[in-house]
Amino acid sequence: MRIKTKILLILATVLFLAVEGYGASTQPLDLASMVSSVKNMDTLSFCGERVPLENRDVKERFEKELLLSIWDRPQVILWLKRSRRYLPYIERMLRENHMPEDLKYIAIAESVLRPHSGSRKGAVGFWQFLPDTGQKYGLIINKNIDERRNIFASTQAAIKYFKALYQSMGAWTLVAAAYNMGEEGLQAEIMVQHTRDYYRLYLPLETQRFI
């Protein structure tokens, strides 16, 4: 993917930390205050599932991703601007379908909410659907119309996909991992490694960083 897939949970914190500085100087945040903000985080969850921050490796990985993300303050401001435009629609559609609100961060991690974002593999749009997957979940994709770039149609397709993944995986962390690396690949790793705990699975680096 062209987009660096860092954020899911991380962006929730990034937006909170950055909001007071929106519209202010675009100089990097003070390193000491950044480190202090990260160190003070003792509890965290994704879609109601607790992140095991007592695991030193998990916490260090989280701190690394958060610090790398919030260091680029101009980029954070762009995330804020796009989030105010698109996230209310995604949040409403998730609520209407009784889905966890944290799933909205997958769109940010995948495309940074850019409708024309694309990857070398052919994934396009807010949720980075490949053509076959998009069509499977109801999107029109042809030479004239590409609903992967439509916030409403693509979000509805993503919700259908999330529901199917959750039926198969049974945990939202695994849903997110499967969304990133593919359901079959994740199922194969679960069988080989004999664990369904996302935080204990050894996965491709991008997927290890996804949550």
Account of the 3D structure:
With about 210 residues, the protein is mainly alpha-helical. It has one domain (about 10-210): Lysozyme. It has helices spanning about 10-20, 30-40, 55-70, 75-95, 105-110, 130-135, 150-170, 170-180, 185-195, 205-210, and strands at about 45, 50. β1 (about 45) and β2 (about 50) form a beta hairpin. It is globular. Residues about 1-30 have low confidence and may be disordered.
> Helix coverage percent of residues?
55-70%
How many distinct beta strands? 2
Q: Indicate the CATH class.
A: Mainly Alpha
Number of domains: 1
Major sheet attributes: 2 strands, antiparallel
- Series of secondary-structure elements, N-terminal to C-terminal: HHEEHHHHHHHH
CATH architecture: Orthogonal Bundle
Q: What gross morphology would you assign? A: globular
User: What do the pLDDT scores average to?
Assistant: 84
Please give the count of helices: 10
End-to-end Cα distance: 16 Å
Sequence of strands across the biggest β-sheet: 1-2
Determine Rg (CA atoms, Å).
17 Å
Instruction: Report the sheet-strand fraction.
Output: under 5%
What class, by secondary structure content? Answer: mainly alpha
- In CATH terms, what is the fold-level topology? Lysozyme
> Which regions contain 5 or more consecutive residues with pLDDT less than 50?
1-29
